[in-house]
Amino acid sequence: MRTLIFRTAAPYLTSLMLLFSVFVLLRGHNEPGGGFIGGLIAVAAFAIQGIAFGVPEARRAMRFHPMAISGFGLFLSAIAGMVSIVFRVPFLSGLWWSPSLFGVTVDLSTVMLFDIGVYLVVVGSLTSVALSLEEREEP
Amino acid sequence: MSTLVALLLPFAAAAIAPVATRLQGHRAAWLLAAAPAAIFLHFLSMLPAVAAGDTLNGGVDWVPSLDVRLSWMIDGLSLAFALLISGIGMLIVLYAGGYLKGHPHQGRFFAFILLFMGSMQGLVLSDSFLTLFVFWELTSVTSFLLIGFDHGREAARRAALQALVVTGIGGLALLAGLLIIWGATGKSDMSGLLASGEALRESPLYVSALLLVLGGAFTKSAQFPFHFWLPNAMEAPTPVSAYLHSATMVKAGVYLLMRLNPAMGGTPLWETLLPLFGAATLLCGALLALRQTDLKLMLAYTTVASLGLLVMLTGLGSDKAVEAAALYLVAHSLFKGALFMVAGSIDHEAGTRDIRGLAGLRSAMPVTFAAGLLAALSMCGLPLLVGFLAKEEIYAALGFADGWTAALTVAVLLGNAAMLVIALNVGLKPFVGALPRLPGQPHEAPLLLWLGPAVLAVAGLLAGVVSTPFHRWISSPLATAIAGEPIAIHISTIPHLGVPLLLSALTIGLGICAWLASGRLREGVASLLAAIGWGPDRGFDQAMRGLIRLSRIVTGVVQCGRLVVYMTVTFIVAAISVLGPMAASGEWPAWPALPDLYFYEWLVFLLAAVGALAVLLARSRLTAIVCLGIQGFAIALLFMLFGAPDLSFTQFMVETLSVVILALVMTRLRLLPTDRRPGPHKIVDGAIAVAAGVAFGLLLLKVTQVPFDGRLTDFFNAYSRTIAHGRNVVNVIIVDFRGLDTLGEIAVVMIAGLAILALIRIRGRRIVAARREA
Fold it and tell me: Among A62, B73, B458, B557, which has the highest number of CB atoms less than 10 A from its own CB?
């Protein structure tokens, strides 16, 4: 699989796909998309990186162990649910905050935090599986 | 201080215990003992109200939506128990401070024992069944931790597990019993049940409820044939034995029987079963105690005997029997707790607990000797001590009215004589005679070690000498609560001539004769038991081994470890569970009319069909996987054409990744590139595949043909924008409306990822190991 064309194209593909996955994640609340789909796109991006440059290189690029990313995602989602307890509304109630930055209103919410958690869980778990399958059997 | 604070205080103390011990060492015991001391004073302040006949009720809502309350009920019975638990608990914490001085895990020990104290206290104060059950189980769990405290030793681990299994099974029986009582009477708390005992006794469910409750009480209170776990629990450090296995936990079963006596007692079944099992336990415990040479084990078996005696008295149910039970309950806690602590001090200072090597410690340990002797005399039932009051009442309750009570009287006589032997063996024998060579240098135990036994022994003396206030404040309200009607106890320590005194004298004479011959008696009992050769303790091991063997067989059948079998079974079950009900009810879907589609829609449909067909015809597995992907993409296109962009989007990504991952799995598992299943195998697999496919096809057809219920759609369409601020209804459902489901799903995704990772690594390691060997 390590042809010259593929290896030349892979970095661009990977970075574009990762960027696109974040875009899909963030637009999910109003347009087709969301954490789950975004996560799947990012997994595909990391898989390409792994196939093109080898698994150690892909792992270096990710910095953290994929399972750690997954765990952090689950933690983030749970925390997003618990924020509502502080405001004395039931667990996982969506809370919205719309600050104005330089005249642009940005809608932030615990729901978004929750969706980012979903994204990270999907990215972490599936990348972990894909990369360890790609790995050669020597330790 | 409110009762709620008293209920929670031990748990708070347990939380700070490790830190306090790290900072203060064994001196933290003084600080930690303040918690039970405060609780003791709190309950002491309730004595006047309870002695006047009041029952104090209270509670807080725990889970209001399920109508669950943390509620308590304080009458003479709960109060006496609460005072014993907090009072002895305080002394035990101090004793443990001295006994485990310098132990690396002393802080953990304090935490466990305080947790246990809180559980036991909650148990005896509980009003609602649910609270009772929760605390009941907590005592089992904390006692597991305490018995297994010395977890480096195999014997301690086994004893802990045994206690947990026996009392845990009993706990389940109790739960079922309480639920039946709830169903039969409609009452879910003790105060309600005690007011409507008549309804329960006349209910057809009475017998099953009684048997289940007895199952819980008998296992907890170590009644024959479940008595074996208690002596084994002596693997625990001595403070645990003194607290759990004499004064508190093992009395939980007795407490439950006493508590339920007004509601469930008085029936022929109750009055037969309880005395029968109680007497059997009494004799069994007494007999086994005579064989022992270890001080703690002797005491443990006499505890079994005493618990039998208490169950028997509770079962008899006459006023005298209830009075005797109340007095003996208090007396036993005082003298047995003291004697256990004395045994622990002897072990601590002299370095052995073997009765055959112990003598002459009186001058070295005078205070311990005084406390031990006083407690032993109470256990013997000599005048001036509270044990005497209890024994007189026991004999007064039994008598020789008919054959049944005469038999019980003989049993009690023999049991008491055996207990006298043990009392003298623990409280007298180690201290008199000439001092032999001992493993340790005997000297007086420090204050922390002699304080507990001394206080308990003196309390036993005071209760016997100034019996009038003792009866007024403690024993009469206790007996009243057990009987469910007012009882006043009057017995004093001045002996009155009569049958009970005669029986007492006979017991003492018999006991002293037996004590003098205790060496020969021990050998006799030992050879008798050797002749029997089997006991419930070995039975427990056999049962556990049988259980493990059974589970190995069942697991071998159900979990064969072959993916082919799992998938085959899954698909067959799926096909049957869909087709079966359809065939049974005859509700097949109607044949649909040919849909009116554009030509490009037909084209996509055709693409899917070609993809599926190509999977069947493909020579190599890799081609098949790719063809499966083509079919999946075609489906994704159909979703797109029919207005489900989210679904289509996801389908595209899932298909892409499935092809990649399946291809990787194939190379990783080194499957043969082509499918080499034999012909008949292919036909069977094909039939299963067709059945599953047809089943789901028909199901989908049927689903589209039933009238569409649009209420959910309308709801989500109406509120997605206004409540959840999102236009994409699908995503709003996932992250907001059904967020809890999603949280569960991503947890599953993560766990599945972890599991797959582990599987891949195991395989990788095996291959590496195999290569190294080669």
Answer: B73
* Residues B241, B351 within the same domain: no
Helix, strand, coil % (nearest 5) of chain A? 70, 5, 25
Residues of chain A with C-beta less than 8 angstroms from the C-beta of B654: 40
Query: What range does the domain containing B306 cover?
Result: 266-516
Look-up of token digits 């208490």: B310
| Structural tokens at position A87 | 């405001």
Contact B650 A40 (CB under 8 A): yes
Structural domains of chain B, count = 2
Residues B431, B360, single domain; the answer is: yes
What is the phi-psi region of residue B399: left when phi exceeds 0, alpha when psi lies from -120 to 50, beta otherwise? left
Higher-confidence position of B364 and B747: B747
Give the nearest partner residue to A137 out of B753, B756, B768, using CB atoms: B768
Which structure tokens are listed for B267? Answer: 């029936």
Residue type, B194: L
Beta-carbon contacts of residue B75 (< 8 Å; ≥ 6 apart): B50, B55, B56, B477, B480, B481
Q: Are residues B244 and B349 in the same domain?
A: no
Task: Give A111-123 pLDDT, tens digit per residue.
Answer: 899 999 999 999 9
Q: Distances in Å between the alpha carbon of A69 and those of A47, A126, B649?
A: 16, 11, 24
Which of B625, B639, B646, B653 to substitute to test the interface with A, most A CBs within 10 Å? B653
Write out pLDDT tens, residues B312-355. Answer: 999 988 888 999 999 999 999 999 999 999 999 988 888 888 88
Looking at the fold, whether B381 and B437 belong to one and the same domain comes out as yes
Using omega within 30 degrees of 0 as the cis cutoff, is the peptide bond preceding A90 cis? no
B275 CB neighbour count, 10 Å cutoff: 26
Answer yes or no: do B343 and B435 share one domain: yes
| A137 interaction partners in chain B (CB closer than 8 Å) | 764, 767-768
The span from the CA of A79 to the CA of B734, in Å, is 17
Determine the Cα–Cα distance for residues B313 and B394; give it in Å rounded to an integer: 8
Residue B337 lies in a domain: yes
CB count, 10 Å around CB of A127? Answer: 28
Question: Mind telling me how many Å the CA of A78 is from chain B's nearest CA?
Answer: 7
> Going by C-beta distance under 8 Å and a sequence separation of 6 or more, which residues neighbour residue B176?
B212
